[in-house]
Amino acid sequence: MEAEPVIAAEPAVEASKQEVEKVVPEEPVESAPKKSDEFAYLDAAGFSSERFKIEIKNLPKYYGINEMKKLLNVKLSLATNKIKIMRPGCPFLFVCFRDDAERQAAIKAIDGYTWKGKKLQALEAKPSPDPLVKRRNESTKPDGVVTVKKRRTLEESVTALAYLSYEDQLKQKQSEMHNVLKGFGDEVWKSCPTMRSYVEEMRKLNDGLPCKLEDIRGSPQVDGYRNKCEFSIGKDGQGEVRVGFRVGSYSNGFLEVESPDKLKHISEKMKSTVKLFEEFVQKSEYEVYSPETYKGYFRQLTVRTSNATGQVMVVIGIHPQELGEEKLSELRSSLVSWFTSEKAKEIGISSIYFQTIEKFKSGQNAHPTTHLWGETHIIEEIHGLKFRVSPQAFFQINTPSAEILYQTAIDLAGTTKQTSILDICCGTGTIGLCFAKHCKQVLGVEIVAEAIADATHNAKENGIENCKFYTGNADDLITSLVRNANVQKDEDLVAIVDPPRAGLHIRSITQLRNARGLNRLIYVSCSPQSAVKNWADLMRPRSKVMRGGPFMPKRAIPVDLFPHTPHAELIVLFEREPEQDEEEEEQAEQKKDETEKVEGKVEGGDEAAEVAAEEKV
């Protein structure tokens, strides 16, 4: 670029012809740094379904992911690849397909279709940008420096209350449970007008709450209590390979992984296991997996420990990429050698599993695991009972506090030897088996077949014969469980509900409401804020769908299973008035008819004669 010479306005001395004029070039203008392509991920294998996305609008206020899957994949016979609900009750969502032909077929089938009284709209949607790349582009200054949000430390992210004394942590959680129940009362007031008088009456008795809130039960073990953790594998800010936890979310521009060494709720045994595996990954020829590029192999390490036996189970999660069976076999062999070393024996590693973590295939709901070495399970103890725990089965992460949780549920249930228990979302049968000696029988249901196998084994191992466990979706099996319970006139039925964080599907709530003989329900929630809608549905007045009477909240008891974090479990006891059985209703109806006939005869009018004539016909 040429620059004009700078000439003095009034030169003191005339420059000689031999002098060279001074030229001061302008400073070059820097071009803005090149932005990264926010859609580059579309070319990565396995992520092309974003190219074939649609938006569905005008959805009803209440629907669930399972209902939506059933509508799209079963009723409309579509082949969805991914369904993305933005938030509960959102009037729109996005659905991805495998190719454009499937997308166009979906638009044709959905657009104008009436579902739950709403006429749906369907149209093509643009693919979503990579949130990490988008955040980086938004945060890039003209000089090329990337600024990201000030990140919290790992301790602040994972154990947000660790700076407080445990007594103050419990006070804060008690206050949070009070707020949750207050919100529950507000929700019932808003959505169930016929219940307002009841809510107001309860508020006067319970410090503004719809039921009595008792004091929180603290955890017997405050530090190192977690018996299971899923650790990420990545690199820290200096590029060193780490096994630990991510310090922030992908969408906020964070990929760094930091060590769990300073976290109070992780045991020393688990920290030692993490360190041991971190050394293996650092020495390995294979790279760690990157969620940004979708390249690399090591993705996750799951560690399970037993308070009772000291056993340690490790599950190594790998993305195989293009590795052939020979290479994978070598990798599995090297993992076994590493985790059976003298150092591993000192830690107590007793079980090694290999897990393949790839994108879910159609109908798949868990990543497959392969047993490599040692015991197939670890053994844990609660209430004097032994429980076999498999790699993917649910088990409360704080064993000492789980004992308090289950005893609290047993006390609230008020069972006798004439009580049948429905254990909904039973997992490995821990709650049901703890109830077994306090009741007539336990019938449990769980969608994970592996967990049901554990539950059945646990019953047999402990010599418990009054428990039966069934594999299946609770949404479909509750009515069958009630039938199988075969509750007699002088017996009672109690349901124990311990659902995942999202709560129960409305179909399960409906079946519980319509279950004859079920008049007491214990709801155990690990996410009370998410359970409020379930609780409100239990209280709704009768309708054509919910024919059974409403359940009313009576007592709520928080139990702390998660010291140093803001989370706690909340157990709520619901009760309803016993309903007349079919025989009593029929007798009452006959008695009513006879009374009306007698009254008609006493009056002596033509109406009595007409009734008699109709009876003859």
UniProtKB/TrEMBL annotation:
EC id: 2.1.1.35
Biased composition (Basic and acidic residues): 588-604
Active-site residue numbers: C526
Name the record gives this protein: tRNA (uracil(54)-C(5))-methyltransferase
Enzyme class: transferase
Region (Disordered): 576-617
Assigned protein family: Belongs to the class I-like SAM-binding methyltransferase superfamily. RNA M5U methyltransferase family.
InterPro entries: MeTrfase_TrmA_AS, Nucleotide-bd_a/b_plait_sf, RBD_domain_sf, SAM-dependent_MTases_sf, TRM2_met, U5_MeTrfase_fam
Catalytic activity: uridine(54) in tRNA + S-adenosyl-L-methionine = 5-methyluridine(54) in tRNA + S-adenosyl-L-homocysteine + H(+)
Keywords: Methyltransferase, S-adenosyl-L-methionine, Transferase
SUPFAM superfamilies in UniProt: RNA-binding domain, RBD, S-adenosyl-L-methionine-dependent methyltransferases
GO biological process terms on file: methylation
Residues involved in S-adenosyl-L-methionine binding: Q396, E446, D498
GO molecular function, one term: tRNA (uracil(54)-C5)-methyltransferase activity, S-adenosyl methionine-dependent
CDD domains, per the entry: AdoMet_MTases
Biased composition (Acidic residues): 578-587
Superkingdom of the organism of origin: Eukaryota
